[in-house]
Design a protein that fits this description.
The protein is mainly alpha-helical. It has seven helices and no strands.
Length: 197
């Protein structure tokens, strides 16, 4: 059973990573760059400040700090060394010779689970708690962005599909946990009524 899943994972990786072109190489590398998302984060912070106020913004920033720490450390500090699944772009990988690696960026030795996927899906899930009742279309945008980043990690040759799916599940669970804490904080009267969505 496990061998069949691994074989399927490797086959899906070959399919996605093998469908490359110069345009998509550049686009996916750009999407996967964390600094590219800074203007989006700045826009979100401005939107939160305008809609909810400064105290609410500070609460959300604390939540995001906890969120990213939990998702990133669980992915990189716990699951990667525990599972020791080498990345497809690592020389010890069974698909290494077939990998189309963009700009020579492979990352660390182990890939399960994807930290990029965990962090982006955690953030998308949490932001659904923040904006869900007021701006119903935004959660779809958040998850579409998270999905695109996760897909880019496969395309770039640094993760198997299973790595990003595992990261997505981890991120959603962390997002739900921190989102629950966020809602509890709002209900506790931590913020004045005008700051609550």
């Amino acid at each position: 059973m496990i061998e069949s899943l691994i074989h399927l994972d490797e086959s899906l990786f070959r399919l996605i990573n093998g469908a490359n072109s110069p345009f998509w190489d550049g686009f996916m590398f750009w999407i996967s760059n964390k600094y590219v998302w800074i203007p989006v984060y700045a826009l979100l912070l401005g939107l939160i400040w305008k809609q909810f106020g400064l105290r609410h913004l500070l609460l959300i920033l604390v939540c995001v700090g906890v969120l990213i720490t939990l998702s990133d450390r669980t992915a990189s500090g716990l699951l990667k060394p525990a599972t020791e699944r080498v990345r497809p772009c690592n020389p010890d990988s069974p698909v290494y010779k077939e990998v189309h690696l963009v700009q020579g960026k492979c990352g660390g030795r182990f890939g399960f689970v994807s930290s990029h996927a965990a962090n982006f899906f955690a953030l998308a899930t949490f932001l659904t708690f923040v904006f869900g009742s007021n701006k119903r279309s935004l959660p779809y945008v958040f998850f579409a962005c998270a999905g695109l980043v996760a897909f880019s990690r496969i395309y770039l040759g640094v993760h198997y599909p299973g790595d990003v799916m595992g990261g997505a599940v981890l991120g959603i669970l962390v997002g739900l946990l921190v989102g629950w804490g966020y809602v509890r904080a709002l209900k506790s009267g931590l913020l004045p009524p005008k700051a609550v969505n």
